[in-house]
Amino acid sequence: MALPNYYSHFPQRKSVSNGQDGSADVVVIGSGIGGLCCGGLLARYGEDVVVLESHDLPGGAAHSFQIKGYKFDSGPSLFSGFQSRGPQANPLAQVLDALGESLPCVNYDSWMVYLPEGEFLSRIGPTEFYKDLDKYASKNAVHEWGKLLDAILPLSAAAMALPPLSIRADMGVLSTAAARYAPSLFKSFLQMGPQGALASTKLLRPFSEIIDSLELKDPFIRNWVDLLAFLLAGVKSNGILSAEMVYMFAEWYKPGCSLDYPVHGSGALVDALVRGMEKFGGRLSLGSHVEKIIVENDRATGVKLRNGQFIRAKKAVVSNASMWDTLKLLPKEVVPKSYVDRVNSTLHCESFMHLHLGFDAEGLREDLGIHHIVVNDWDRGVDADQNVVLISVPSVLSPDLAPTGKHVLHAYTPGTEPFELWEGLDRRSSEYKKLKAERSEVMWRAVERALGPGFSRDKCAVKLVGTPLTHKRFLRRNRGTYGPAIQAGKDTFPGHSTPISQLYCCGDSTFPGIGVPAVAASGAIVANSLVSVSQHSELLDAIGI
After folding, report:
1. Which pTM value belongs to this model?
2. DSSP 351
3. Which of 79, 145, 175, 514 would be a feasible disulfide site paired with 508, CB 3.0-4.6 Å?
4. In what residue span(s) does the Amine oxidase domain sit (predicted)?
5. Cβ contacts of 166 within 8 Å, gap of 6 or more
6. Is 533 exposed, middle or buried (0-12, 13-18, 19+ CB in 10 A)?
7. Arithmetic mean of pLDDT, 469-474
8. Could you tell me which of 262, 261, 263, 277 has the C-alpha nearest to residue 53?
C-alpha cells in the first residue's frame, strides 16, 4: 500500500544536518502521537529537541495519506475530548493547549451498529442508549445499564481529579500532582461518599471486577461493555483498567457530551502537534531512519541513522517505537537479560486488515453517518478474528477529504488479524494476493451492509487492501502488532525509564497503554520527567490547571 504525501510541506524536511553529524538535547525516535506530544512539550519547555521519523510522513499509526485526490486516515478516527479544557481535559487536549494550538472539529453524537440483535443508531449521552436497550435487548438490560452508570459516573471525579499533564515519572510528582491537586482529590472523595470512595480503590483493577461486583449478568450489557473496552484498548473488560473505562464513560455518557472529528481528518491533529512543536523551536526530520541507539559507558548518548549520521543526545534519547522494536535498536551486550526476557515474554495484540476506498457518493443515503461498527457473532467474542469490523466514512463530516460528489472510507479489523497467517509470505506472490482477497472479504461485506444497495465495488476509484505485513512494513511495528496484550490485574504496562541511563520510552508499550489519550499521556509524562519540577509547575500555571 503506497503512502503518497499528504501535507506538501512535510516532505521538504530533510534529514538533520544534511548528512553531517548533529546534536540535540533530546532525540525522539518516531513521530507517532506519543513522540510528537513528548517532542512538543520538550520544545515548549525550552529544550532543543529533534524528532526523527523513518518515513516521509509524520504521525505513525495516525498519519494521513492522499491518492487521486482522496485523503485517507490510516488509523484512529473515533475521537472525543478535543474541545475540553482545564484539569479534567483529555490528555491530548491538554498537550495542544500547552502548545497554543487549536484543533477545529466537527461534533457528532452517534454511530451505527450492526449486531446479531439488529442494527440501530447508537447515541452517546446519559439517556438515548436506554431506548436502544429497551428495543434490542431487554428490560433487565435497561435496569443493569442504569445500575452501571449510577456506579461508575461518580468515580469519574476520582479518575479525572489528577490532570494527565501533572504526572511525571519521578518523586517530583509529589509536588506537581499529589500536593497540587490534593484539595480536589479530597473533595471528589467526599462527594462520592464512603461507598464511592471504597469503589474508587478498584480504578487500577480490571473493569470486569466492577461489573461483577454490581452483579450485572445481562448478555447484551456484558457484550457491549466488552466491545467498548476493545475499541478503547484492544482488550476486553477483564483486561482493561477500570480508570480507562471510567474516563471513557465520563466522556461518552455524561450530559452534553459529544464525539469530535478533526476538520481535514486525523492528519490535521498530527499537523497541529508538529506546528506546535516547531513554533517553540523543535525539529522534525523526515526520512531519518534510526538504525541503532548508541550506548557509551552504559548511557544512551545518541542514535545512528541508516545513512551513517550520528545524532548526539546531550540529555536523553526517547523511543516512541514499540518495546520489541526499541530492543532491536540496542546493542545486545548492554541490555540486561532480565529486560530482554521481560520484553520477549510480553504477549502481542494481533494485527490488522485494512480497506481504504474512494468511491462515488451517488445513490447513497444522505444521512450516512461517519462511523459504523459490525459485530458478526457475540459468542465468538469481540477479540475473535474476522468478527468485528470498524468502518469510518469521514468525508460525511469533512467533505474536503474527497473530490466533489465522492467519499473516502476506511474499514479495518481492530487488532484481531493473526500475524501467523502472513508470516514469511512474499508480498509479490500469488499466494499473498489470494490471501489478501480472502481475508479482506469480511470487510467488503461489512461495507456493503453499512452503505446499502447504492454502493458498488465497481464504483470505487481507489481500492487499497492492507495486511499485517503492510502494518509491519510502513509503521515499523514488530509483527504488525496493535501493541502489548497486557491485561490489568495480571500485569502492568512498563514505566518510561529503561535499564539504560538516559534512554526513555513513550507510546503504547508504556503506561498507561494503548489508545490515543493513553499514548499522548505517556509522551507528556516523559517530557515532564526530563525537566525540573519548577519548569513543570510553571507550565501547569501557564495553561491554568
Report:
1. 0.92
2. E
3. 514
4. 33-528
5. 173, 176, 177, 180, 181, 540, 545
6. middle
7. 92
8. 277
Identify which of 485, 488, 344, 504 has the alpha carbon closest to the alpha carbon of residue 415: 485
If you search the block for the grid coordinates 443493569, which residue do you land on?
Answer: 144
Q: For 369-403, what is each residue's pLDDT tens digit?
A: 999 999 999 999 999 999 999 999 999 999 999 99
Closest to 267 (Cα-Cα) out of 60, 474, 39, 94: 60
The beta strand positions in 200-282, using DSSP E, are 259-262
Instruction: Report phi then psi at 42, rounded to 5.
Output: -60, -40
What are the pLDDT digits (tens) for 291-318?
A: 999 999 999 999 999 999 999 999 999 9
Angstrom distance (rounded) from CA 463 to CA 474: 18
Of the candidates 510, 513, 488, the residue with the CA atom closest to the CA atom of residue 205 = 488
3-state class (DSSP) for residue 256: coil
Q: How many Å apart are CA 88 and CA 180, to the nearest integer?
A: 14
Q: What span, in angstroms and rounded, lies between the C-alpha atoms of 293 and 25?
A: 15
Q: Beta strands 259-262 and 503-505: pairing type? A: unpaired
Cis omega (within 30 of 0) on the bond before 512? yes
CA gap 42, 47 in Å, rounded: 5
Q: List the beta bridge partners of residue 356.
A: 410, 464
**What is the model's pLDDT at position 514?**
87
What count of residues does the chain have? 545
Residue 365 has a CB neighbour count (10 Å cut-off) of: 10
